[in-house]
Amino acid sequence: MRAAELASLSTEVAPDRGVTKQLSDQLLTGAGVETIAIQADGLRRLVLQGPKLAQAPYLVDLRDQAPVSWITAPFQTLFGGDGRMVRVIAEPRFRKADFVEIVAPDAELKRALSDYVGRLILVVGFVAGLAGLLVYLSLNLFLVRPMQRITFAMERFRADPDDPASHLEPSGRRDEIGRAEVELDRMQADLRVALNARARLAALGEAVAKINHDLRNMLTSAQIASERLAAVKDPQVAQAMPRLERALDRAVKLATDGLAYGKTQEPAPDARPTPLSNALEMAAEEARLLDKGLRFSNEVDPAVQVQADPDQLHRILVNLLKNAREAIEQQTGRTEPGVIRASFVQEPASGLIRLADNGPGVPERARERLFQPFAGSSRPGGAGLGLAIARDLITLYGGRVWLERSPPGGLRAVLMLPCAVKAA
User: Which is the most buried residue in 77, 113, 118, 413, by most CB within 10 A?
Assistant: First the structure.
């Protein structure tokens, strides 16, 4: 455009502004255009003119161009076909006029634009590739490798939990990866402790199983000897016999309970609608509540049914009722009779069986310990397996059991059974 404007200025110095056809062709060729026109003071004048065009050229007015044309015009130039002519109107830069108008072929513009697009694609491709490489290296360094390290530690821990090499040392990062490393380290430590404890219990169970036969023979011999001693008329022997019998009973019960807890593999529960009130009455009878002078208050509607295995539900209730009975029996200085109340609360997706007693109760911090095998007996000499067995059985149903303070001041065992139903 500027070359065409300069070519038009060169015609001003010619005599009478006239130029030969040879000079006109040279000026047009040098400017790379076909026609040059100037409009000044409202008068449009054709300065240089080339061959007549077969069709009207494509108009581009640089004085008033819409922003969208800056996007569409390059594509029209690149894909508009060969041999197209462009008519361009622009404001002059080197002379006073309204506008300068040229008609030129778009071949050079298309070639220059193609070269520019090619270089732009190369530059953009290089920058994109470099950025992609940096992103890949960053992700690999800060995310993939730490996750591979965590995964490798988990695989080694699964293969051999006792292997010290499977321990994952946290890197100290403060992001989510660092938190995952810390939590994995804690989980591995907790699992090692739990696995070691389970291994010790398994070894204990195996040892008890091996000596079970001999232990029973020895206890049987001791019981036979105690029966013979009971026939002796010596007052001192008669005074010592009750303590000996209680000691033997405790030894037999401890061995039996230990074997039952260590060797029993519970079958899958055969859950079906079971009348809860009747199950409570039978459990209370087996727990010998009335024989021990306790009062059992069954406040459950006879129409209530729960979805449970009758045999396993019976064992759960018996263990819970025995635990409540033993707690009441161990309380000294009682002035009122022991009472155990059974109730049922229906919830939208479950049912709560509550067994509340008026015994001495248990501090909140010590309640969870009652569910630990061999650690939570409520009476001296007990094995402490009743609540542990009850919790293991209820877990088979996806339920829970917990202890809380009862309104009378004692302890209340709450048994949550999912899918509890109530008959019409």
Answer: 413
